[in-house]
Design brief:
Beta Polymerase, domain 2; alpha+beta; 20 helices; seven-stranded mixed β-sheet; elongated
Length: 409
């Protein structure tokens, strides 16, 4: 029995980056031997075990063979005869196909260290094209390591293009796709994830609504970058620079989908794009079964982001409707995330990345003013039921009028 550290832990140590998760592969062992040593089995499809003390995952060396469509369409074979090199060749990228023993002696049969130095994301073998999930994974790694100068090798991008055209991407489950998408959006340069998907043709398969934004112009006075797709990438980049949570990043990606529906004769204006985009945002949300908080914020940002930009001009009644739509009294965090998405949208424009966004504090102040309306005095006056609701609304409107007047002085 020989045990090796494999994959990301080896890669990140060689890059000088912090190692978080460690994967181990066991060569020359049987399931019975692992159980005898106290390892706990967890793998349903192939033998994976948890270490009795550390809880880390140890997998028996295995080979795989394509047997069906999609990410799960593989037959695995694990036995003591499977070599380390045979196990490593089934991995996606050369930089993930290295192993080291307990003395940090490197096993690198597919030149992963060379590609680390060349800053290349290169596939290990032609079998790469058998697994559609690898398109998303490579795009995610491109987003993670873009700051270090990594790019996708041309021959790997070509395989990704072939996968995108094969129909295999449609076989991915929403859960697997969302896992990769959500992880990619939380990388330091999530816009690179979208760029790579677009470069290999996967974006128009997975998110045609986002792909349709590229080449669609906007008014140069508000959008010096002009192209709606380029603007979306910039907004996503700003969200990462400002350490926004996943909910905000997802909303930033989808906020302008309605502009992809504007007839060319109406370009560069996009009348009512906020409302038109809602059905597209809903479709993308449902396609990937995004978590509920991500779905809700994306829909709200899509519908109301221009309200956010025009906050200082909104009538008190419109401002109250906005606050009601977000249920700021019970869900204050969601409104805070809406404000963040609006600010990222404002900053995601060429040359305007450092602009101030006074709308943010104004909206926070409006929410505070509305929240400060006391309900108890209205109860004491005898209001109840629907009448109480109307009375609260009148008082909140009065508070917002006072707030607006004070803010304009």
């Amino acid at each position: 029995m020989r045990i090796y550290k494999v994959g990301g832990a080896v890669r990140d140590r060689l890059l000088g980056k912090p190692v978080t998760d460690i994967d181990w592969v066991v060569v020359g062992a049987t399931t019975e031997e692992m159980l005898a040593k106290g390892f706990r089995p967890v793998g349903a499809d192939f033998p994976v075990f948890l270490h009795p003390k550390s809880g880390e995952e140890y997998a028996l060396a295995r080979t795989e063979r394509k047997s069906g469509r999609g990410y799960g369409g593989f037959t695995f074979h694990a036995s003591p005869e499977v070599s380390l090199e045979e196990d490593l060749i089934r991995r996606d990228l050369t930089i993930n196909a290295m192993a080291e023993d307990d003395q940090q002696n490197l096993t690198d049969p597919y030149h992963g260290q060379r590609d680390l130095e060349a800053r290349l994301l290169r596939h290990v073998s032609p079998a790469f094209a058998e697994d559609p999930l690898r398109v998303l994974r490579v795009a995610r790694f491109a987003a993670r390591y873009a700051a270090l100068g990594f790019t996708v090798a041309p021959e790997t991008l070509e395989l990704m293009r072939q996968l995108s055209e094969s129909g295999e991407l449609e076989a991915l489950t929403p859960e697997r796709s969302w896992k990769e998408i959500s992880r990619a959006l939380m990388e330091d340069q999530p816009q690179v994830f979208i760029e790579v998907l677009r470069a290999c043709g996967a974006l128009k398969v997975l998110m045609p609504e986002v792909d349709a934004l590229f080449g669609v112009p906007q008014p140069p006075a508000h959008h010096p970058e002009i192209d709606t797709g380029a603007h979306t990438l910039s907004v996503l980049q700003q969200a990462a620079l400002h350490n926004q949570p996943l909910t905000v990043r997802w909303a930033c990606l989808l906020h302008d989908l309605g502009k992809g529906l504007t007839p060319e004769e109406e370009w560069p204006r996009h009348i009512a794009h906020e409302f038109k985009g809602l059905k597209l945002i809903k479709a993308v949300n449902e396609r990937f079964k995004a978590p509920r908080d991500c779905q809700e914020l994306a829909m709200l940002v899509g519908e109301y982001h221009t309200h956010g930009h025009r906050a200082l001009e909104l009538k008190p009644s419109t401002l109250l409707e906005l606050l009601q739509s977000f249920d700021v009294y019970r869900r204050p965090q969601r409104f805070e995330e809406f404000i963040a998405a609006c600010e990222m949208d404002a900053r995601g424009r060429e040359g305007l990345e450092q602009r101030s966004y006074p709308q943010a504090d104004y909206l926070r102040g409006a929410a505070t003013a509305a929240r400060c309306v006391a309900v108890q005095p209205l109860l004491e006056q005898g209001f109840k039921g629907p009448e109480l609701g109307e009375a609260i609304k009148r008082e909140r409107l009065k508070a917002l009028k006072a707030y607006k007047e004070a803010a304009s002085v």
